[in-house]
Structure formats: structure tokens, C-alpha cells
Amino acid sequence: MLSVRRLAAALFATLAIAPAAQAWGPLGHSVVAELAQRHLSPAAKAEVEHLLALDHTTSLADIASWPDEIRNDPKQQDLWKQTRELHYIDFNGSDCIYTPPRDCKDGQCVVEAIPHYIAILGDRSQPDAARLQALKFVVHFIGDIHQPLHANYQQDAGANKYQVQFQGQGTNLHRVWDSGLLSTRNLDWKAYANMLDAEGEVALPPSIAPYDNAAAQWAEESCQITRSIYPAGHKIDQAYINAELPVADTRLREAGRRLAEVLNLTLQNG
């Protein structure tokens, strides 16, 4: 039987070479989860529903924001402290090339968190409660890593320190990308997912490095996007929205497709 670490490595090696066949707020995370759930294999769908039944739901969208929500749950403060650094990666070089000792000390970043929780999810010897918790983190962190500012190199706390004007109010660029851009469509998560799903299967970017950890590529993609999303004059105007909202939509679609692939691979065997 594969060890937890070897299982994760095997799964991510497969994803890395597969053909083109807080991050987002609740809206974005629900959209990613819904897109993925619509494209699960029968085996993965059955196992996801088995685990979700522990939380009395059948929808991945219902649990997609849980890793953020525990921040405000007094009973989950230890878990929040253990996992709060796993939602993002701060690249320590403008090259946007993932270097683990430099960019993810002691494995405390989203790039390493994803395969860690995938391995727990895929380990049928683990209690269902542990696997459900792992499912929640996998769904959430794959969403997180596709939000460009969760993989930034500017050393400004993922643009939380970069102030902008948006819709007549002061905010920060991170918050705009978490939820502000998406909210301009005035759609709820199911309608948003319907709109994106109607566009068909998104073509995934080509491999940019020979990684056996696909999350490293996903983080590098996000990091590269951040090079062009800081607005001139610190103002988010309609021209900015017109240019960047399609980028955000594409990242949601890519996250949804990749999440479905991860779950299909991880949960393919009963």
C-alpha cells in the first residue's frame, strides 16, 4: 500500500502531466466547488456524498468556506492557528519560481498543504471525520491557490496593504480580488457557476515546470498574474473591471476543473 506521502506524490505527478483535458470569498469558493461537483466521476461523487453526509449536506459548496469560517469559531481556534498560514504562499523572489526552502519554510504554505490533505482524503484507513475535514481543506485550498493574490511576491501581505478606491470606497486590492470583482456580476454562486459552466471545459495552461507537485505550478501561475493586476493610481475603474474580471473567471474555471480532477483521482477506488 502506498504511504500517505507517496500517494500524494503519485497523484500530483499525474496531475502535473495531465493534458489540457482568505482567497475567494464565499461566492468564489462556492462557484469553484460547484463547478467541480458537476464533473465528478460516479465513484468520486459517491464518496464525496458519503463524507458530506456527516455534515448533513450533499453540496461541496456548503463546506467550501469552512476553513475560513473556523477563524470565528471559539471551539476551532487551535485548528485555525495550525492552518492559517496554509491559505497562501508568499514568493520571496520576483521570478515566481517555487523554491520550497525559500518560499515555504517547514511546509507551511498552500503549495504543500494541498497534497498533504489530498493524501489524508485518499487514505481509506483514516476515520471518515478526518477525511471529511481533509476534503474541506482540499476544496478550499485549491480555490485559494487560484486567487492570484494568494501567491504573490510583492511582500505586501498579498496586497492587503495595497490600498485602492473601488466603487467609491477605500479598500485593499486583496479584498477586491477576493470578492469585489466577482460581485460586480450581481449573480449568486449557483447562477455564476451556471454561467461559467456553459462556456464548456476550460483549457488548462501548459506545464511550466517539471514538478511532481502540481500545486507548485498553480501557485506560479497566480504569481505571474499578479505582475499585471496592480491598478495605476490605486483606482479600480470600469476599465480595470472589464480587463480583470475575465481573468478571475478563468481562474475560477481552472480551479473547478482541477478540483474535479483531484477528487476523481483521489477517490477513484473504493
Give a brief outline of the structure.
By secondary structure, this protein is mainly α. The protein contains 12 helices and 5 strands. Strands 4-3-5 form a 3-stranded mixed β-sheet. The protein has a two-stranded parallel sheet with strand order 1-2.
Strand content: 5-15%
CATH class: Mainly Alpha
CATH third-tier fold name: P1 Nuclease
Oligomerization state: single chain
- List low-pLDDT spans: 1-5, 12-22
SSE arrangement, N to C: HHHHHEHHHEEEHHHEH
pLDDT averaged residue by residue: 91
CA-CA gap between termini: 14 Å
> Which overall shape is indicated by the principal axes computed on the Cα atoms?
globular
The CATH homology group name? P1 Nuclease
Count of DSSP-assigned helices: 12
For the largest beta sheet, what order do the strands appear in spatially? Answer: 4-3-5
Named at the architecture level, the CATH assignment is Orthogonal Bundle
Total domain units = 1
What fraction, in percent, of the residue positions are helical?
40-55%
Number of distinct beta strands: 5
Indicate the structural class.
Answer: mainly alpha
- Spatial extent as radius of gyration: 18 Å
| Major pleated sheet | 3 strands, mixed
Organism: Dyella caseinilytica
Signal peptide: 1-23
Pfam families: S1-P1_nuclease
Protein name: S1/P1 nuclease
Write up this protein:
The protein is mainly α and 270 residues long. The chain has a single domain (4-266), classed as P1 Nuclease (Orthogonal Bundle), CATH 1.10.575. Helices cover 54% and strands 5% of the residues. It contains 12 helices and 5 strands. It has helices at residues 4-17, 26-37, 42-52, 66-69, 77-83, 100-103, 110-122, 128-145, 173-183, 189-197, 214-226, 238-266; strands at 89-90, 151-152, 163-166, 169-172, 235-236. The strands form 2 sheets. A 3-stranded mixed sheet has the order 4-3-5. Helix 3 (42-52) crosses helix 12 and helix 7 (110-122) runs antiparallel to helix 8. The protein starts with a helix and ends with a helix. It comes from Dyella caseinilytica. Keywords: Disulfide bond, Endonuclease, Glycoprotein, Hydrolase, Metal-binding, Nuclease, Signal.
